[in-house]
Amino acid sequence: MKTLWTIINALILVHCAAIALFVLWLWQTGRIDGARVQQVRELFRSPVAVAKAEEAARADEAARQDAEAAEHARKQDPPLPSAVQVRLTHDVGAEADQAMQRVRDEGERLAAELARRESSLREEQADLDRAKKAWETSIAGSEDAASLEQFRKSVKLYESVPPKQAKQMLTGLIDGGARSQAVAYLDAMNPRTAAKILREFKSEEELKLASGLLEEIRTRGTPSKAPTDADDASAPP
């Protein structure tokens, strides 16, 4: 019997030491402090039924306080009468409709303005195109006039030099690849002057060349000489 009590006492001491070490470990690791100890004491202070009753009483008290606060707020700011609420709702809806109509009107105005500007831009572009075409036409006309005047001067130059020299100038053009230009000059000259120049082609090869030039002049169709270049009185004797 004595041995049994000794064993029981030893087990109690071991469990007490284990509990003490566990509490010490909780304290050192920060898992328990004075506040948590107090919470544990409060948790086991009263039975579960009593704790539930106290919790229900606190919830009822909170609900009563909320109801009193809502009633106080209602008395301080009472709700509007139904007629006033209907009128306010109608006014708000009317204002919203007016705002939407203003937005639609502004959109239509902007679309019309955009269409007007696009039409104006198209008209301006058409005016620019017409001006550009007229300018190009005038430039082409001036270039044609300048080219015609230069051609007349060249023809008068060929007519003013001796036939032998004119022949050399024409053969130089032909050798340089401007045979059609030489034919045009001959075609535009006074026929007497052109004949004198062609009579300077004397060798067999030159005669073939002169024959070819005459054939090309014949097949040119409308003469390309200037209106004042066909006057026989302007030809040298």
Describe the structure in your own words:
- The protein is mainly α and 237 residues long.
- Among the domains are: 64 residues; 84 residues, no CATH class.
- The chain is 81% helix and 0% strand.
- Helix 5 packs antiparallel against helix 6, helix 5 packs across helix 7 and helix 6 crosses helix 8.
- The longest helix has 79 residues.
- The C terminus is likely disordered.
Largest sheet: none
Radius of gyration, in Å, reads: 61 Å
Please work out how many helical segments DSSP would assign. 8
Query: In percent, how helical is the residue content?
Result: over 70%
Strand content: under 5%
Number of strands: 0
Alpha-beta content class:
mainly alpha
Order of helices and strands: HHHHHHHH
Give the overall shape: elongated
Low-confidence stretches: 222-237
What is the typical, i.e. mean, pLDDT? 79
Query: Ends: how far apart?
Result: 177 Å
